[in-house]
């Protein structure tokens, strides 16, 4: 079996000497043991880096995060902190954004 190319993994992902995967310095197996599966793991450093790349390419205020992709208060705050606007299309999305203090 071929390993997954590093470019497809989050920025802080590393393959440990025993072959296990860690993200942000935390073993994925530990997260699975604690929270079970399926489990979505978001790498804050990776998300911030991608937001910064987009803002650097298009300018502050010219990049809009599509909240339909994934929205919670933390993600809304992160996108705005990195210079993005939010695309809010429903009362629920507006509510979450307002609850995030935006």
Task: Give the secondary structure arrangement, pairings included.
Layout (H helix, E strand, L loop, with lengths): L13 E2 L5 E3 L2 E2 H8 L8 H15 L5 E3 L6 H9 L3 E3 L3 H9 L3
Parallel strand pairs: 4-5
Antiparallel strand pairs: 1-2, 2-3
Write up what this structure looks like.
The longest helix is centred in the middle third of the chain and has 15 residues, at 44-58. The mean pLDDT is 93. The radius of gyration is 16 Å and the shape is globular. The chain contains 4 helices and 5 strands. The strands form 2 sheets. Strands 1-2-3 form a 3-stranded antiparallel beta sheet. It has a two-stranded parallel sheet with strand order 4-5. It has 2 domains: 6-35, no CATH class; 44-99, no CATH class. 40% of the residues lie in helices and 13% in strands. The chain has helices spanning 28-35, 44-58, 73-81, 91-99; strands at 14-15, 21-23, 26-27, 64-66, 85-87. It has 102 residues and is α+β, with helices and mostly antiparallel strands.
């Amino acid at each position: 079996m071929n390993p997954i190319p590093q470019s497809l993994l989050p920025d802080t992902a590393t393959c440990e000497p025993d072959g296990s995967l860690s993200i942000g310095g935390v073993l994925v197996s530990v997260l699975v043991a604690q929270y079970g599966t399926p489990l979505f793991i978001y790498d804050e450093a990776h998300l911030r880096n991608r937001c910064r790349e987009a803002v650097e390419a298009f300018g502050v205020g010219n990049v809009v995060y599509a909240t339909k992709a994934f929205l919670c208060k933390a993600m809304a705050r992160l996108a705005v902190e990195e210079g993005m606007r939010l695309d809010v299309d429903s009362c629920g999305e507006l509510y979450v954004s307002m609850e995030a203090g935006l």
